[in-house]
């Protein structure tokens, strides 16, 4: 009874956020939190479907049932549906089965096949990517097309009038299958598909000789055809011919969405298009960007279980206490007057760690403290350790990753540094602003979209939530950090305004879901893709 009362209260609170037009939505993804996650894709596909369901849509998520060699407790509540289908591809008929769990008003459907049962991570192991990934995700795409037709979830099927939301290359064969194998026979003629690009760098490229394995008609080869430029070929006799899953979806999807507005422009440039820039430019009329949301149940300074003191925009006293607690935990001098700068992320070239390394000697001359959390490149991990030993009272490097520590750093720092070379969306800057930590970022992709440059002389008084600098140079980054440090020290009221404006921003998934509903509306206005 208590559970029902709580559910009733939740529904009352969400009544105002109901969608005007509801759809049957099928998400297809290689991962979704909490079942399987390797990065931001898992966060999006674990949260956005729940937000859309809360707004009144009927939502299904189709993903593999990964088992790391043994039964996985993440799927403990998923039951066997007794539905089997046979998929004609890769030289035979391959049987897959479906498992189902109904959670948070979403139908979580897990595709089961022996190729998903192996030790290692989702896409590879210590030896690299699995050699049969093309086969594994071809099965997923076929199964996702069949699931709305054969699975009776809650008593009835989803049917043919669906909105397919396909995420990255793992699900990119779905729009091609709809156009090549279903619509010509009158099936799914009223459905639509949206491709969501989370990271254009991964495209699912395999040799052209694998095309017959996909089970597609020969005349559809052009949709997936991909030719590497001469400089990228292995030898003089290599023709560079390949099939590209993501390219197939770019061609056949009804709408294309990237995970920020800035990234939707970057993918149409030669620098950010990863070879697909011309094709994406030709589809600019259906290309949009929507910034990801954050889960405020996990990232909320007023309720966060990982931080020692809670606070809000109305009462910031807890943040100073969090800073002192973090300094004590890290063994740094407890000094409230010293700006504490943080970095959280992978230690690799994309995140700009090499530039942080270059400016560190100059930065350590300032009266500041710096903490880094991350793992990755061995050389950079060793550099973090040596820098800590050289600057014991100013620098701490935590090699590895810890969710509780990342929360405490986000809450305890005054400034979060993100000098990423490219960032499709970025989440740490959103978490930072939610916690009143001022971001200093390179103005690229989602970082440029979400961080508004501080302007003390705006039309309506002070404006901005942080600093976004460009171009990405050590001089630029150092100058911007020094500007932020002097603002922290000399202009306390301005700094408090920066914190409060960041904390008042709406980065919830409900806000993102509302924008996706607009994309759904536009997709159904136009006719579906027909060759």
Automatic annotation (TrEMBL):
Functional pathway: Glycan biosynthesis; starch biosynthesis
GO cellular component, one term: amyloplast
GO molecular function, one term: alpha-1,4-glucan glucosyltransferase (ADP-glucose donor) activity
Compartment list: Plastid, Chloroplast; Plastid, Amyloplast
InterPro entries assigned to the protein according to its UniProt record, in alphabetical order: Glyco_trans_1, GS/SS, Starch_synth_cat_dom
Keywords: Amyloplast, Chloroplast, Glycosyltransferase, Plastid, Starch biosynthesis, Transferase, Transit peptide
Main location: plastid
Record-annotated Glycosyl transferase family domain positions: 334-484
CDD domains (UniProt xref): GT5_Glycogen_synthase_DULL1-like
Gene Ontology process terms (BP): amylopectin biosynthetic process; starch biosynthetic process
Residues annotated as domain Starch synthase catalytic: 25-281
EC number of the protein: 2.4.1.-
Any one Pfam family match given in the protein's UniProt record, by short name: Glyco_transf_5
Keyword Transferase (UniProt): yes
Catalysed reaction, written as an equation: [(1->4)-alpha-D-glucosyl](n) + ADP-alpha-D-glucose = [(1->4)-alpha-D-glucosyl](n+1) + ADP + H(+)
Similarity-based family: Belongs to the glycosyltransferase 1 family. Bacterial/plant glycogen synthase subfamily.
Protein name per Swiss-Prot or TrEMBL: Starch synthase, chloroplastic/amyloplastic
